[in-house]
Amino acid sequence: MRFVWAVVAFLIAAVMIGAGIAQRTVFEGPSTETQTIQTDGATAYTLIDGAVLTRLPGAQTVTAEGDGAVFAAYGRTADLRAWLADTAFTEITVDGEGAVSNATSTPTPSPSPSGSADAAEDAAAGDDSAGSDAAATVARDPAGSDLWLEEFQGDGSLTMPLQLPDTMSVLLASDGSAPAPSTIVLSWPLPVTTPWAGPLIVSGSIVLLVGIFLYVLAIRHSRRSRGPRRKGLPMPVTEPIDLAVEGVDKGVITAGAPASRRSVSSRRRAFLVVPAVAATTLLFAGCSADAWPDLASSATPTPTETVIVPEGQQAPAVTENQAERIVSEVAATIASADAAGDAGLAATRLGGAALAERQTNYTLRAAIPEHPALPAIPASPVEIVLPQAFDGWPRSVLTVVENDADTTVAPTIMLLTQEDPWSDYKAMYVASLEASTELPDVAASYVGAYQVPPDSGFLSLAPDDLAAAYADVINNGENSQYWSKFDTQGDLLLAGIQANKDQRTADLAQTGTNTAEIAFESVAGSQEPFALATLEGGAIVAVNVNDNDTVKPTNADAVIKLLDNPAVKTLTGVEESSTGFFTTYSDQLFFYVPAQGSSEQIRLLGYRSSILEAKVIP
């Protein structure tokens, strides 16, 4: 009977193990769902909407196939649509029933994404010029745009593993002129679980062991229960054995005999080990997590700190990775421009006061070999990223960048601005942080900060008034009406400007001729102020102040000679003047302005001062 039960156990084990293995092999469903989209290839760009990418849960894999170069990038859907606003493109969308389709979208006569009121009125009135501009498609190379969060390039085919939310989309193109890839394959991983494979394999292995055990018992019982043997033939009469005779087989059982029995026993044990090893192998074959039922109770979520985004606040202009890439590209471009003295190249990544000072510096370095270059813009590491929370244009981001090549150099603070979706970010203000500067608390980079209006009354001083107020402090010192509003104790720029005034006045007095006079005046610069809110209700404000000095003769017979001032001589093109010289130095300044009613003072965070222009007084 034991043999019967053993056979039954073997059969049951075979069925259970076979069923478990079959669930993991022949009966296992597909691991991905794939959808192929074929476009007509009539446009240079294809937009895959985020709703298509998130039609199924999980990561997405996008494969694009075309002739020649293949370009792909992803970013916020609103940004991609803004970039495509002036050209025709193929749009892949999904309807309410989940069906994917593609169609060609033509340029719309809407105004530029800056969303200005005047442009909106022109569009509403049906401005003919706006309509004619929109009707024309524009071919531009999408590679390298600052709008993309990440971009990819390939030849003939390109595969991108992604995991994007429905607020982001993918742009496909070639070079902006040739048709975009026409064959697109989207795939998503499918959750393939076989929760009974593991239990079946393990249970079958246990039954198999039980069957083996029963089989061994059956054999043992069979041997012990055999009946008496038949009587054999008569044995011969035994004779004495002569133990003294050597070399003769005396019939003594030698030590080798038990070894043969041990050999047999070892083979039996080996026979029993083989099924155990096989069962163990089968056991581990079903140990992956998706081969077992999910019997774990749902975990209680752990409370985490939540960042509250103000209601109605728009998305940050850039992500942290995006800002790091932009800063790196700005640094590389300006390094090349500095080496070549190329103001045109510098203009591709600089604007405003930052560009003006470098244009002057390039002019001086071309004429005066020993004239020092401006400090380089460091590429990394980017320590602080404070993007403007704004969906339109122009949009800006404030960054603080350490200099990993020289830790003794003060960090650089920059304000970068993108004028429209098709432009690169340009550094409009560039300065060095003052020693031991304590920056105010700012919002996380993934939240961003709103731009404080130039005429805001919520700050202790409106951004529009800040440059003029600081210029008044430079001009009048403690007699300025704004003196008490500024923290002047650690203001190195203020002290430096005053020391320069004193030195130049003293140098002129030492001539003893009393034929010339010098006058100093600081005024608000021509660059627009820009302010981003901080967490305390204040703002970081970037402004431009110009320091002017005028040297002119005090009588009609005197002339002013430029003996020790090669910079002014180069910029004016003359060595002397009977009317005098007017020189302007540009200050790029970053301040922390506290909220209205705060007891804090306005603090200078960083500055950069350099000569801007010089001219002969008419």
From TrEMBL:
<keyword id="KW-0472">Membrane</keyword>
<dbReference type="InterPro" id="IPR058407">
    <property type="entry name" value="DUF8094"/>
</dbReference>
<feature type="region of interest" description="Disordered">
    <location>
        <begin position="99"/>
        <end position="137"/>
    </location>
</feature>
<protein>
    <submittedName>
        <fullName>Glycosyl transferase</fullName>
    </submittedName>
</protein>
<feature type="compositionally biased region" description="Low complexity">
    <location>
        <begin position="126"/>
        <end position="137"/>
    </location>
</feature>
<feature type="transmembrane region" description="Helical">
    <location>
        <begin position="196"/>
        <end position="219"/>
    </location>
</feature>
<feature type="domain" description="DUF8094">
    <location>
        <begin position="315"/>
        <end position="615"/>
    </location>
</feature>
<keyword id="KW-1133">Transmembrane helix</keyword>
<feature type="transmembrane region" description="Helical">
    <location>
        <begin position="270"/>
        <end position="292"/>
    </location>
</feature>
<dbReference type="Pfam" id="PF26366">
    <property type="entry name" value="DUF8094"/>
</dbReference>
<feature type="compositionally biased region" description="Low complexity">
    <location>
        <begin position="103"/>
        <end position="118"/>
    </location>
</feature>
<keyword id="KW-0812">Transmembrane</keyword>
<keyword id="KW-0808">Transferase</keyword>
<dbReference type="GO" id="GO:0016740">
    <property type="term" value="F:transferase activity"/>
</dbReference>
